[in-house]
Structure formats: C-alpha cells, structure tokens
Amino acid sequence: MKKSIISFALSAILLSQTATLAQAQIQPSNPYATAAELGLMEGFPVPADKQVTKANALQTAPFNRWSYQHMRMFYPSADIPASQKPVDLEHVIDTNLAKQVSVQNAAGETRSFDEYMTETWGDAIVVIKGDRVIFEDYRNGMTANQPHQMMSVTKSFGGLLALMNIHEGQYSESQYVGDIIPELRNSSAFGSATVGQVLDMTNSMDFREDYADPTSGIRTYGAVLGWTEKMEGVDYPTSLYSYLPTLNAEQEHQHGEVFHYQTAKTDVVNWINNRVTQQSFQVDMHDKLWSKLGTEGETYVLLDNNATLVAGGGLNATTENLAKFATMMLNDGRFNGQEVVAKSVIDSIAAGGDKSAYAKGPNASENMPGGEWSYRAQWWVSHTPGHEAFMAIGIHGQWVYIDRERDVAIVKVSSAPESYSKAQELYDLNALRAIVDYVSAN
C-alpha cells in the first residue's frame, strides 16, 4: 500500500472522475511526448481532445504534462511573495554530468542520463554542490522561473515551519494537540496525541485512502474541500475545520506505535502553526523562508473552495527558488551570509524519526525498507550507509533531495502519468544517488 504514502492525497481523488470520451482519445504513440508534441491547449478554440480542464488537470495523463506548470488556471490560489532583495545563485555548470552519469532502471538495465529524464517524464532537474548550481536540465517547456506543481513536497515545508516555530518556543512537541486546538479535543485521532506524534505521523488515525470507495476517508475529505463530487444523501461537514474533529483513532494501534502516512495529519500540523502564529502558511513561508532566500518571480499555493490552504500538496514553485531553499538546507540553514533556519532544526530532520514505528507501519517498502528509513517532521529520511539523506517527495515525480554528508542537493520536477509506481520510485532513487556519487567523486 505504499503511496497512499508519498501522496498529495488530493491529487489521487480525481482518479474517480471519468474523463470525457474526447479526452480519453489521446493515446500518443510516444508515451513520453511533451505537451507541445501532444498539441495540448493549442488553438482557438482548443480541440476537445487537447483541452486541459479542472477535471483532468490534477492527475490525468497526458494532460498533466501541461497542467503541472499552470495549476492556478484551474484552482483558487494565493501568492507567496518573493523577496524584496533578490539573490542570484552562482551557476558553474559541469557539462560532463549528463555524459558521465548512467542510471539503472527498475529492471536493472543501464540507461543514459538523457534516457532517465525522458523515461521518468522529467520536466527539470537542478543539482547543487555546496552553494553553487553545477547542473540544470529543462524539458517539456519548463524554465528555471516557471512554477511547477510540487504535490506532497508541500508537507515538508509545513513540517519545517513547525520545527522552526517549536525552536522559537512558540509551542512544544510534547504538548497535546487538543490543548492547542480545543476544537480537536474530542477527536481521538488528535486530541490526546502529542504535537510530535502528529508531526511525525505516528498518531493513530482511522482514515482509509481508498479512492475507489466513495465512503472512504480520502473521498470524504475531497468532497469537503470541494474537489470531488458529493454523494447524494450524505451530510458532509461544511469545511476542513469541521471535518478534522470527526476523525478518530484506529483500534489496532495506540499513538506513537506505528508510522502511517495520512494526509489529514498534515492539515492538523498546519492548523497548529496557524493557530499559534496567527499567520497563514503562505505568510509564514514568506516571512521565515522566501523573504530571506532572495527568491524571485512567482510562487503560489492552491486553496480549497473555502479559501483554505491545501496543506497536503498545494505548493507551486520554481526550480530556481527551490534550488535556493535546497542550498540553504544543505548549508546548515545559512544562506547569503545569514541564518535562515537554526542548524539544530535541520539536524533534527537529518537524524530522522522513530525507525521502529516506521518499520512496523504500512508504508515501509522494498524501495524504502524498515531499518534503513524513517520519517521526521514531514520529511523522508534515508539512513542507508553511503546514501544518508533527507528529502521532500511528491507524487508524479517531485523531489527535493538533501545529502549533507556529501554536500549535494537535487531538485527534480516531473509530470509522470502515474501518481506512484514502485518502478518509477526506484528509478528516481537510483538516479539521485548516482548523481550524488558522481558529484562527490569529482
């Protein structure tokens, strides 16, 4: 059941919606065709079979090849303002990287770097060594300053903001969620769980991410947000804030025993941040991160029909701004001569979470096995010798990969047709590690 995990849960909701017959007729002979090669959104009017709509923008291939660079055209959104003092990253490009790096796919076949990018529907990749961009590759019409849908990478920003607020003494991981959010006191999934348990997703919660079942937790969640149709005769909560208190713990596990990746937990992390700081995610992002990272251009987050942030996966950001963020994380929280994030906060992420809870949970997998992986503050952490790293991951191929041991960070954005496949995940992990190995050796 991996990925009910790395899931921008909302993105999978729309699998339940059937594309129109005209839309379904796009069956390109080249499965890796770009949006331009497919002719998506071209013409006045756009032909019906080339039209990207709200119904197919979020997850339906191949329309996501275009939509992931234009998400705010289909959903409500809010800006995260750029810095008033832009800072340019130094670019010293290693032209040999693409020639020298080869990657094993899931079948064990050796593929060139170019084949890897094509076969994983890569839209862009940026590699950082120290504080310099040493490689970048843009495809499918993507540019360094084009915002891209980041899916569950959003969660990791929320987790980082939480740790920063905790470091500042605004609340603690040992506090009970119900003491901070009184509205959640009667929810057995959250009221008696600690902040740290929800932050690390080890609180017990009965929430099925079964997209085919309209009565499942994730389908109810989507209906509440207005992103999927409501079932007739069902009395739905009117907002996310009235829905979260209805969630309860599962009977099999106590809080803290098992890691289980479930998107609604991220909404509670965000709610705690909002309540304590009295600021929205986007304001906190700007004040604590974006304003200090010399960011430029457009960054935005998606909202639900009540203008509430989609905390599980609403971030849309440029690779240039994400590279500045990754550079800061790589350099112990420092950027452009100032501390942006306390080193102890980043140390906490890199150290990882409860390995035992991770191993006992349903999300440990062959690619990310128990004993070698953990989850900490909405970040995935690899403890594999030689490949220690922490990362933000989103479905359809979004990655922010930080390897402090070898001083390398990588940002990759994609528009893969499947939300998750074991093969694509392994292909990406093999590539990211191969890039790190090459860069650290040169």
TrEMBL record:
InterPro entries associated with the record: Beta-lactam-related, Beta-lactam/transpept-like, Diverse_Enzym_Activities
Limits of the Beta-lactamase-related domain: 113-432
Keywords for this protein: Hydrolase, Signal
A GO molecular-function annotation: hydrolase activity
Signal peptide: 1-24
Protein name: 6-aminohexanoate-dimer hydrolase
Organism: Paraferrimonas haliotis
